[in-house]
């Protein structure tokens, strides 16, 4: 059974280093990526920012708990469900990135590659080492899905509000990505059939990731520990 390491100084050092790395990579992406303000519509960059927020809050909790009650004890961070939610977002963001979500082909750029790989990895290690396990329920993933659901909705309605802009759209959630395919059930209705299928698949994949993480949270938290029968 894995619960967490109760060393606030260690957690403070790790989280500070991880947060600094994410900020460095994020700024590097900002400087080196053309039209970064448009590509921030991509899901992977948004989830990298959420990973940084999670670690920043962890730094704050580790520091305040260390200064107030000493080195030994739970480090503190976002509650277990929120930590797993952000980890779920980050993993899906990495899948998006390496599947070619951006029209600018950002997966060729080293800054973006490092950011998309390391941001979920840092959050995963933080969760495994410092966050108490076993507090997440199987009823939580549908709530986790609110953010990716609204992301999908925004990608659907954005072209009708601001007009279609290939640079500020997710490639998976654009009818232009499907309308020329020689598959009528996908290219039909001007490519919106494919966009609809992609939207459903994104949410299904996210829920699969989230439920796997909840299962692992239960496993690491000792939910499946064998209980010996009482003898009367």
Structure characterization notes:
It is a single chain. The chain has one domain. 65% of the residues lie in helices and 0% in strands. The protein contains 9 helices and no strands.
Task: Please describe the structure with a list of short key phrases separated by commas or semicolons.
232 residues; mainly alpha; 0% strand; disordered C terminus
Short description:
By secondary structure, this protein is mainly alpha-helical. It is built from nine helices and no strands.
List strands and helices in order, with pairings.
Layout lengths: L7 H25 L3 H4 L3 H27 L10 H19 L11 H21 L10 H4 L1 H17 L21 H4 L4 H29 L12
Helix pairs in contact: 1-3, 1-5, 3-4, 3-5, 4-5, 4-9
Classify the beta-strand content into a percent band: under 5%
Mean pLDDT: 81
Rg (C-alpha, Å): 20 Å
State the helicity in percent bands.
Answer: 55-70%
Number of domains: 1
Q: Span from first to last CA?
A: 28 Å
Major sheet characteristics: none
Query: Structural class, from secondary structure content?
Result: mainly alpha
Q: How many helix segments?
A: 9
Instruction: Give the total of beta strands.
Output: 0
Globally, the shape reads: globular
H and E string: HHHHHHHHH
Uncertain regions spanning at least 5 consecutive residues: 226-232
């Amino acid at each position: 059974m894995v619960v967490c390491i109760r060393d606030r100084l260690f957690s403070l050092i790790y989280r500070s280093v991880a947060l600094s790395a994410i900020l460095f990579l994020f700024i590097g992406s900002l400087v080196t990526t053309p039209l970064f303000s448009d590509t921030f519509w991509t899901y992977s960059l948004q989830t990298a920012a959420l990973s940084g927020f999670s670690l920043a809050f962890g730094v704050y909790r580790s520091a305040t708990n260390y200064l107030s009650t000493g080195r030994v004890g739970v480090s503190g961070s976002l509650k277990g469900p929120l930590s797993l939610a952000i980890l779920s977002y980050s993993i899906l963001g990495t899948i998006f990135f390496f599947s070619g979500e951006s029209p600018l082909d950002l997966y060729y750029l080293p800054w973006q590659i490092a950011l998309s790989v390391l941001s979920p990895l840092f959050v995963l290690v933080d969760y495994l080492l410092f966050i108490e396990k076993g507090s997440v329920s199987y009823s939580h993933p549908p709530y986790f899905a609110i953010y990716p659901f609204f992301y999908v909705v925004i990608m659907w309605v954005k072209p009708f509000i601001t007009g279609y802009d290939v640079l500020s759209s997710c490639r998976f959630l654009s009818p232009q990505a499907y309308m020329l395919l020689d598959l009528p059930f996908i290219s039909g209705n001007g490519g919106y059939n494919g966009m609809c299928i992609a939207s459903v698949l994104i949410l299904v994949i996210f829920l699969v990731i989230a439920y796997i993480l909840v299962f692992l949270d239960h496993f690491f938290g000792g939910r499946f520990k064998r209980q010996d029968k009482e003898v009367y």
